Amino acid sequence: MLRTKRIAGRFGLFSRKAWQYPRAMPCATITSALHTSSMTEDHIATLKVRRDRMMQQLHDTCQWGQGERWGSAVIDTGMKRLALTDADKAVRDWFVEEAKSLGCNVTVDEMGNIFAVRPGTNPDLPPIYAGSHLDTQPTGGRYDGILGVMAGLEGLRVLQENDIQTDHPIGLVNWTSEEGARFPITMISSGVWAGVVPLEKAYASQDVGGSGSTVRSELERIGYLGPRPATPEATPMAAHFELHIEQGPILENNQQKIGVVNGAQAYKWFTVVVKGRAAHTGTTPMDARGDALLVAARMINHSNVVANNSGALASTGILTLQPGSVNVIPSHVRFSLDIRSKSDAIVTEVEQKLKRDFAAIAQGRDVEGCTPPSAGTLPMEVTWATDYHSPAVHFDQGCINAVRTSAAGVLGSSELFRDMTSGAGHDSVNTSKHVPTAMIFVPSKGGISHHPEEWTSDEDCALGAAVLLQAMLRYDRGHNSK
Amino acid sequence: MLRTKRIAGRFGLFSRKAWQYPRAMPCATITSALHTSSMTEDHIATLKVRRDRMMQQLHDTCQWGQGERWGSAVIDTGMKRLALTDADKAVRDWFVEEAKSLGCNVTVDEMGNIFAVRPGTNPDLPPIYAGSHLDTQPTGGRYDGILGVMAGLEGLRVLQENDIQTDHPIGLVNWTSEEGARFPITMISSGVWAGVVPLEKAYASQDVGGSGSTVRSELERIGYLGPRPATPEATPMAAHFELHIEQGPILENNQQKIGVVNGAQAYKWFTVVVKGRAAHTGTTPMDARGDALLVAARMINHSNVVANNSGALASTGILTLQPGSVNVIPSHVRFSLDIRSKSDAIVTEVEQKLKRDFAAIAQGRDVEGCTPPSAGTLPMEVTWATDYHSPAVHFDQGCINAVRTSAAGVLGSSELFRDMTSGAGHDSVNTSKHVPTAMIFVPSKGGISHHPEEWTSDEDCALGAAVLLQAMLRYDRGHNSK
Ligand SMILES: [Zn+2]
Ligand SMILES: [Zn+2]
């Protein structure tokens, strides 16, 4: 059956500001079953999502896992939807029904990953997926992960109500337990799918709350232990696109709307231990001390200087000391050191400089760029242990180009988007090991994430969703090698 | 009855090295009941203790509270004699019997302080006391406190076996629970005696182990809740001398044997809180951080520089942070700051400088002597709370002179002793508020204390005990205003 309609009446439209209407809506007459191969660039660029509908659904489904009071204030957008809890089951059940209502086939694999697939016209092609996660941190917000899934659903809805056909099937995956907050392996289920986390290890991972529940027992309990292997062979993908909040301040600080994410930083985590000598704070002269905390303080400050000079990041998030008494000089200090850069070589360079300089600082020797000890110090021991190493990830140029072109189309001005490297880990890091992958970032207010105050404006969410949808359609059109 | 003896046969003699025999033993003929008023300076200077006997008794009585294994090694001198435990009762019972056997009257006050008094010839005079404590830290050694009591007993023994008479009675006090390790108020019982700790507060102090026992219930349980008020009126003193290990490295590092302690440092304890902003370590550029730990590290380093420039001490023994995750920049850091000097004015000066400079560091402003932030920083809040203030203590010049003269007499060379200020708190700080007081320090190997490796050589213990005994006799002779 053939129909004619004004496109403007069919696409979800929104927004107030000029840059959100980069071009006028075409009043084209088109056939009902619109195939991406026959759409013009202009057609695709005008394809938007219905902002209010998408956001309404995002907030509605946050009834499952609504966060607790946060301190003395109630922050309504706080979320606590730990993976494989009853709240997670509830939103999953809703997700499955919603995807089915949009004409998708839904399957679940052995890690509980849910794949919703809207058929394409070429039965030989694997789906192009959008993907993210519906679980949150215990004191999380409503955008990290959730936005990516909700935007994927909204995209399917727009395709469906506009009868848009694609060569590839268009899929949407909800990856199980991305956060690692309840079961302490981050990106655990995309990790199993990608072969970087063994299935048995994932299944055995236990609830950090000490309940004794495991990933496997909880998958069974909530009815999401699916039959399909979690592998790229059992669930092939043509590509994987993920819309995510930035979780950092770069877009906001630069008044930009979209990050075209070309990969993920390399990072390396270390535990550094400084061993000095406990002594009484009142009876030990300044030049006769082996003050492990003072030396650790110099090291932390120095790591900041060295990383910054190399354009890298260095951070200490954990520090513990012994014996821990107001009048005893600390004998042992243990601290974490997280070094990051988009370049593997720079991470290595910073690591090597710091290993050299920390040894000198522990010996009380002068180190360039580091305040010397004011009164000498007893020589101390410093030891390093490497806890984790994640090399730099480079996303697929075809996917990146699809995102960049879509960002340009949606925003109209190259000043409103930028290429970025993801500072955090995402399921897309795992998918990128097997299939063409890219990500789309939208601004995080104040750079805040994993906190009830995490927030992205409705406008920015909708812009990101439009870029996600358009990038998948462009990828489908074969613009993937542009 | 009159007897004649060679003095050398009557005094406890010891030692191998030349400086330990600063002068030849006189072969004087003296009457049996030798009164301090008729002793010459030479007589007093030759008065020593019996090293081996004293040390044997010290080690024997450490059967009560013998410490546990320390890590993988057994350190035989480890002690765990927490106040008012069965081990403490056992050594107290022994102490009472031993003092009685030396001709002393023994009384116990309402804080369990045990006063052993050997009568003098003038019934109107209060006793000159030696005093220290028999309790230890949970992982303590055999010298802190214990040496002062054992040396006092040995002095009484030397007086007794040599029929030396004094104008003042000569006393020895074992102060209850000096360490504050089991009941967390240090110097609690000399504090009650001196009126600085209210009796009811002391009685109510609870076992840190959570047993619910209080000082009062444990005093009752072990039979040391005496009838006498713990006050200077009920237990008057002419003076208080305390032999103690230095618990620091100054004497050892200067190859000296005796510290003539002229007072105790002023000290002030603070809790400093830095409030920054939690953010993801991977997604937050260096110049967009409110890294509370980085700022705290700069503050700790700066406190060291400022204190050292003022000849003061500054130390941080406790530091905690939140939220404490390897990939989250700390939002809150809380650390202790302990500032000390022998001068109240210098403590105040360092406090004021640091309050000014910490505020500037928290704002990311340049501070003289402090490495500037490498990449800027978000402004942060810093708050100070004063937890404790102990003003400088100045001991009595008469007592100090008696100690200095005795040190000169025992050691022979002014290079072997020095004036010092105590860096730690002692019962003598409390007694000095009411009666003339001074202390004598002997070297601590490696400056180590409150640890099973705490150690002072037998020779140094005996030198200290001789100085203690001689100082009391000199004070008795009225050399207290010299
Ligand atoms: Zn996420
Ligand atoms: Zn002591």
UniProtKB/TrEMBL annotation, chains A, B:
Pfam families the UniProt entry points to: M20_dimer (PF07687), Peptidase_M20 (PF01546)
Q: Does the keyword ATP-binding apply?
A: no
What keywords would UniProt list here?
Hydrolase
Outline the extent of the Peptidase M20 dimerisation domain.
Answer: 266-360
Mind listing the GO molecular function terms for this protein? hydrolase activity, acting on carbon-nitrogen (but not peptide) bonds, in linear amidines
Keyword Hydrolase part of the UniProt annotation: yes
InterPro entries recorded for this chain?
Amidase_Cbmase, Bact_exopeptidase_dim_dom, Peptidase_M20, Peptidase_M20_dimer
The UniProt entry, under NCBIfam families, shows: hydantase
**Hey, which family's this protein in?**
Belongs to the peptidase M20A family.
Q: This chain belongs to which protein, by name?
A: Peptidase M20 dimerisation domain-containing protein
